[in-house]
From TrEMBL:
The keyword Metal-binding applies. Keywords: Iron, Iron-sulfur, Lyase, Metal-binding. The keyword Lyase applies. Pfam families: ILV_EDD_C (PF24877), ILVD_EDD_N (PF00920). It comes from the Bacteria. InterPro entries: Dihydro-acid_dehy_C, DiOHA_6PGluconate_deHydtase_CS, ILV_EDD_C, ILV_EDD_N, IlvD/EDD_N, Sugar_Degrad_Dehydratases. This is Dihydroxy-acid dehydratase. Residues 364-557 form the Dihydroxy-acid/6-phosphogluconate dehydratase C-terminal domain. GO terms for molecular function: hydro-lyase activity; iron-sulfur cluster binding; metal ion binding. It comes from Parapusillimonas granuli. Residues 42-352 form the Dihydroxy-acid/6-phosphogluconate dehydratase N-terminal domain.
Amino acid sequence: MPEEKQRGLYRGLTHYGDIEFSRYLRRSFARSMGYSGDELNRPVIGIADAGSGFNNCHRHFPELIEAVKRGVTAAGALPIVFPTISLGEPFLHPTSMMFRNLMSMDVEEMVRAQPMDAVVLVGGCDKTVPAQLMGAFSAGRPAIQLVGGPMMTGRYEGERLGACTDCRRHWSNFRGGDLSVDQIEEIEGQLATTAGTCAVMGTASTMACIVEALGMMLPKSATIPAVHADRLRAAEATGRQAVWLAGQGLTPDRIVSEKSIENALRVLLAIGGSTNALIHLTAMAGRLGIAVGPRQLNELSETTPVLVNLKPTGTHYMEDLHAAGGLPAVMRQIKDLLHLDCPTVTGRTLGEELERGKPWFDKNVVRERSDPVRDKGGLLALFGSLAPNGALIKCAAADERLFEHEGRAVVFDTLEDMAERLDSPDLDVHPDDVLVLRNAGPVAAAMPESGYIPIPAKLARQGVRDMLRISDARMSGTAYGTVVLHISPEAGLGGPLALVRNGDRIRLSVSAQRLDLLVDEDELARRRAEFDSRARQPLRGYAWLYHKHVLQAEHGCDFDFLRQAGVGGEQAPPG
Ligand code: FES
Ligand code: MG
């Protein structure tokens, strides 16, 4: 077949056993959509639309996608929009995390199966961007990411409100008795007032920044507010760029490398980003055969300052970061720590892109190197007898007074157990105790964002606002507190977390990067012999597939059969 007949709409013909018939039939059905013959001969740019009525963060996608199409058309190609699964964070049961891999499979297979020369991935809400890129990395077609951008802040009695750090703060004030029902209802109506993703440096914003750092998105486009006209201009420019990528055949594996993944980790640390991003970046990298490990994180953490003063760790919001110079301003501050020779979707290197932008930045939001928010260690992996394969703490969002802490375990065996007993007046709990939640890991419960264990009501009313909390769950990127997450192996697989009993002593040492259960080995061996997993294998459907194939947090919670062979030497969970 002549080469031009393998591109655009003629790419990957449907098998009918007669190539000319396949071509004729595809042309005929494409014409039924009203395309002229000329259009059918252009390169095709697929636009993966993750809009959904169940996704408030993406409610502006119709307008955004029109702008992408405009850019594609202006550059001489044919834009074709196709839907994929959408993951609206608060609308999914039991947790959106369970469906990230499903969405990644949808994206991968549809990008590969349908005739497109490049794809624009339009996503935003937490899991959508990693899912799209995991899929696109595996599909191996030229791809470029466009995000929806962050929400604008709302107001309550003159105070700025941004989802969802302020959601949590006001909710804990309400639980502590400082706000009335009427007040919390009024706040509820002002927390999320525009289209776009959460207004703070939560998971969605963190992922957007990481993807810009990886070179898979146009420069300075991660932070543009959802409702700003610049967001539409970025969408149009993304459409144009996709046509260029298609012409070059520039696939993601030629952009993303070990060095650009390291850049993304540096950026994750410098922006004080979400703990979830480490899981997602690990999964994304794994699709290209690149390993990311907790120990690598700690090495980089030792030398990367936290420079962005945004909630949940600081005071400002995403719209402020954009006005302050956006992500390029942050990357310019840590230029000496980045691999500047990494390529990007623009065809220029990261270093060239940073040279091009305006050097001005607002020092209140993006701190100078000489005046960081923290001089190092925004995120830290922990090891020890309670977390042989690692756990994670966001030091930047935690209370330093609890960094070296030993306390008595108060154990909640499951999420249901926690919901039932946490606020009971009979709960035997003191402010110095360590709250333990288990059976909330990837296999047992699809790893929900419940690691931000609420302060028990009776302590909240006494004014306690933080305690050491540990679990095999995740937490929202918008949350804060002294919270140890992603303990691996999880309790459901018989990790040491499963063996903790009420009253055991647990010790956290941030300086030693350790989390330990202070119980002697004989006693632990006795408990281990009695262990019975609560992680039950579902009988059918996606839940069955998920449960059988999901990997632990240190492997990005990807499915064993989706990672590129040989990454990390991981084992599938039993069952
Ligand atoms: Fe979509 Fe927060 S709920 S980004
Ligand atoms: Mg979130």
